[in-house]
Design brief:
By secondary structure, the protein is an alpha+beta fold. The chain has 2 domains: 63 residues, CBS domain Like, CATH 3.90.1280; 67 residues. 53% of the residues lie in helices and 13% in strands. The protein contains 5 helices and 5 strands. The strands form 2 sheets. It has a 3-stranded antiparallel sheet. Helix 1 runs antiparallel to helix 2 and helix 3 crosses helix 4. The radius of gyration is 22 Å and the shape is extended. The relative contact order is 0.10.
Length: 151
């Protein structure tokens, strides 16, 4: 499995090919009715069945790649190290440990090592994003009430 450190930005050629592929796949996906459509690999003429959700995910990957953004895929039930979780949240490992100890994010302990589930880290991140938006709205309302937006 690739590590976060190994992920690089797509080249211009990869972005161009991804955009062409995304456009073609997005159009095809609109007409698909089967849950497991069959695709053919042109080079080998081999046909394989792919779950429709996997093709939709591929379309999302191609779209993001065409925008020049790197991609990382993590299975939802994956347990992560505290360092990987801290990297995902954009905080220090000691801060993450503090969040774990305070019960903000669930974790399990294996020997001396803590492990956190990817889904729990993402739930925390989503909760914090919602809290940030709420606080920004409160600040804007307070500024508006104090007349900072008056002309």
């Amino acid at each position: 499995m690739e590590q976060l450190a190994d992920i690089t930005k797509p080249s211009k050629e990869e972005q161009r090919v991804a955009m062409e592929s995304y456009n073609a796949l997005a159009e095809i996906l609109e007409g698909l009715r089967k849950d497991n459509p069959e695709i053919e690999i042109e080079e080998t003429r081999e046909k394989i069945r792919i779950p429709l959700n996997a093709l939709k995910l591929l379309a999302k990957i191609l779209k993001v790649t065409s925008q020049g953004k790197p991609i990382s895929i993590v299975p939802i039930a994956t347990e992560m190290t505290t360092q990987a979780a801290a990297d995902l949240l954009g905080c220090s490992r000691p801060h993450l440990i503090k969040l774990l100890e305070e019960g903000e994010i669930e974790y399990t302990k294996i020997g001396k090592h803590r492990r956190v589930k990817f889904e729990d880290v993402m739930a925390y991140k989503k909760k914090m994003k919602a809290r940030q938006q709420e606080l920004l709205i409160k600040i804007m309302n307070a500024d508006e009430e104090s007349g900072l937006y008056d002309t």
